[in-house]
Amino acid sequence: MLFRLSVYILLFFISFSEAVISCLNEDGQPVDWFIIYKLPIYKMEVKGSGVDYMYLDPSVMDFQMSKHTVNSSKGALGRTLTQLYSRYTVRFYMLYNDAPPELKYPSKYGHTKGVLMFDHSQGFWLTHSVPHFPPFPERNYSYPSTGKYYGQTLLCITYNYTQFPQISWQLAYLNPRMYNCSVPMAFRPDIAVMAQICDGKTPAIKNRRSLQKLKSVRGQTFFSFAKSHNYVDDIYTGWVAQALGTDLLVESWLHQAHRLPSNCSLPRHVMNIDRVCLPGPQMFRSYEDHSKWCVSYAFKDQWTCLGDLNRDSGQAGRGGGLICSQSSVMYKAFRQAMRQPTRAVRALAPPTAEKPAYLLLVLKS
């Protein structure tokens, strides 16, 4: 009897150690990608909890209100990061945030936030907009009280190990404020840039920006735009809209005094979103929302991007990036976030079949 019990215990630990590292959904099952839209505490003067969130993954046709809260370890975010807190001693991981938890804010780094964790099989890259998050691996999972006030977005994508050397190069351009990491020797030849960052060094880069095509573990194509501080321009206007060949509607934190106006000076235009309306309805203003995302104006293009940078003149000279996809699920969910008009501010162009009048009403110059 004792021998049989010992075998069961051994098998449990073997299966636990060999479990694949992945983004996990609301039920704790592996998923190709997920997006969390954490709702702001105030939505048009109506006070909420500050920890409620909406959830989206490839199996969900639109944002759904989660039964969990973002500070709970039982939701998708908590379940995914629990892999880090329970197994961080035996895998590669990196935590970076320009406003890290428990440390001073160093402005010399890129305006970028994320978590990577993987083994030689696969892992995840979580990019997000939450300052002071996540906690150090030695701590248990928690969500900062400072992250409750504004809306926030978090994008988790599962990749095969073969994609992480490319991601490693992207980090060189982002210049992340790494505050905790581990790079076992077996990984260092493949991800030399990440190893340098973990060692406190600044990797050399040849260009001012880098665009990489990535494939998720289930074959979804993503494009990673990463700019260095040497590329001094609004990433949305000067690069992403022109590279994707589409006009963009951009949601970013319009709370600061140096926010950029909508821009129609280049072949592809970039327009600020004034308000967001998620299912429920959950409506809030851009200055109540710290998230950073954009969608293509033209329905036929179906581009959705989530990332690091606000449309703010002070951030034009900082590293940061966006991850873009033509996922129809992503595009439909974010495009419909502008389905309810607010007051008319100024029409940027006459209404057309592709740019109807009701959509122009939610834009702010």
TrEMBL record:
Extent of the signal sequence: 1-19
BP-aspect Gene Ontology terms: apoptotic DNA fragmentation
Domain of life where this protein originates: Eukaryota
Pfam families: DNase_II
EC class: hydrolase
E.C. number(s) listed in UniProt: 3.1.22.1
Reaction catalysed by this enzyme: Endonucleolytic cleavage to nucleoside 3'-phosphates and 3'-phosphooligonucleotide end-products
Entry keywords, A to Z: Hydrolase, Signal
A Gene Ontology molecular function term of the record: deoxyribonuclease II activity
Family: Belongs to the DNase II family.
Name under which the protein is recorded: deoxyribonuclease II
